[in-house]
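User: Hi! Is it possible to get a structure for several chains at once, not just one? Here's what I have:
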Amino acid sequence: VLKFCLGSAGVILCIYYTCVNELYAMNEFELIKNLKSRYGLGSVGDDCAVLPNGSGVDLLMTADLLIEGIDFELSWSTAKFIGHKALAVSLSDIAAMGGSPKWAMLTLGIPEALWTGGFIDDFYEGWHALATAASVELIGGDISRSPDKLVVDSIVCGQVEHGRAVLRSGARIDDEIFVSGPLGGAAAGLAVLLKGSRQNAEISSVQQNLTLKQLKPSPQLRLANLLQTRNIATAMIDLSDGLSSDLHHLVEASQVGAEINIESVPICDRLEENFDLETVRDLVLNGGEDFELLFTCSPENGPAARELGCVKIGRITAKKGVVSANGSIEPRGFRHF
Amino acid sequence: VLKFCLGSAGVILCIYYTCVNELYAMNEFELIKNLKSRYGLGSVGDDCAVLPNGSGVDLLMTADLLIEGIDFELSWSTAKFIGHKALAVSLSDIAAMGGSPKWAMLTLGIPEALWTGGFIDDFYEGWHALATAASVELIGGDISRSPDKLVVDSIVCGQVEHGRAVLRSGARIDDEIFVSGPLGGAAAGLAVLLKGSRQNAEISSVQQNLTLKQLKPSPQLRLANLLQTRNIATAMIDLSDGLSSDLHHLVEASQVGAEINIESVPICDRLEENFDLETVRDLVLNGGEDFELLFTCSPENGPAARELGCVKIGRITAKKGVVSANGSIEPRGFRHF
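Assistant: Yes, the chains can be modeled jointly so their relative placement is included. Here is the combined structure:
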């Protein structure tokens, strides 16, 4: 899910671009990137906003909007899964900063048909199970009727030691690039669901595993905490949009480039059983929503990252852009516009 | 706009109620009220969540969801007004706690048709003008595509001296009840807009004034700050749902009752020119969205409240409920369900 810390300010850039060139069609990342360069907002535009708090602790804040028909369908998800995922994606943003989640707000736009009949109950049950596991306290939100689509805005506030949030912008030349776990599963699960299969006992265990990765992602809070407290990660982002896009976000924020070894990128277990090789490669590079962590560390800390089960997939270079042995890797992950 | 600090946790009550009695149709206020009584959440369920911060300052957090077709229509509002109002309603929640706003996030679900063409630009212009006036910094948010309706979630984080937030629950028997300004204008403006008039030079100046009250409300931040720092307000709420409903919220939170003198409730200027007497009474009591403050203070502080331009409309009683000389006043303000 696209984060735009100070990104809404980015909408002001629409002005400039629509004035300068009516035909220039911006996506949401370009909008944010342009905002940052125009206004010199170097330290914003990360997975969370980092707010100094006049104490030894910085606040982290993130919001994630999930809309029925865009981010999920009621035909292939369930209330419980949607509740879980709404919180999970925000917790993943807190993880990406190396922080600890603390408070959450839930804003719900509810179509009349879902107000009664247990949907909201199930939604909250899914939300609450994850919140309890992550020690997150629900402190507020808003309820509105929605004309037709379910709308969920998940807001999470976390904490991190003052000045110690792990930003996207901290990668240095020659740093090693790691991912925290296998990729492609969530996007493959989405493909399974879109083909009409459902998360139930009627599908194979491989497909069950894939659809669960799409419907019930696990934010990497514990790992992120270790990477932060042990000073391992120099830069970090969560893999929400897809490796190709998120790595571009990271190297652009750090004003460096990356060389990756595609063969070393860990692939979700048994993905090849359900998809051809080209599709697997696409799912792994561009699929998104695995909510694993992508981070960089100095070569000296490479062994420590490996010890935590992370997998090295490349290194940071001086030359801008992202390349593999087969050439340039363009950002082809998820975008809304 | 309904606030449900810890209110989402309230959805869990749907479980109990749908189990206990399938036919029991709860509105969103009942849901929150029941949550509070069942779980003993005495200090939550206010206009903002109050979060201790380990310092001399408590954090205030609020979120307000505005959805096209429910909270506004593109046919009678404008991008600029919607941007202004999205922030204004959240600032009003901060005001209702006696706090100062500091940071904001904006979450936008944008239909494709509004992505280009300047709408987002205008929206942000309206938002930003108010943010600048209120010294609020945009720190993040999220952008998603929306299938058809514009969705705006406005999140504001403020601050108040530790332990000094003005809660809904602080009203004491014999306290005087005040409102900060004339009521009924915003709801009257909505009626004007729904009849097909638009906020432009073609309508009378009275109607222009009314529609502006609906489209561009002014949060009472400065007054709220004075009421808080001078220790005047014992309990406070903003008038978003309507005087009848919001006064019920306040007295229920304070476990007291209220006697009001309807004749003393200040009426929006020249409202009688456009509406019959019965409608005026309904707009003033139940109209909502004026975003004036409703507060209580000790009789000794009554003169100080008057000096700030506030108007006494009644007093707090031991007997639960809200009454006037003509009998009981039921909560007939806005509700989503």
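Residues 79-96 of chain B form the longest helix (18 residues). Residues 158 and 317 of chain B are 32 Å apart (CA to CA).

User: Great, thank you!
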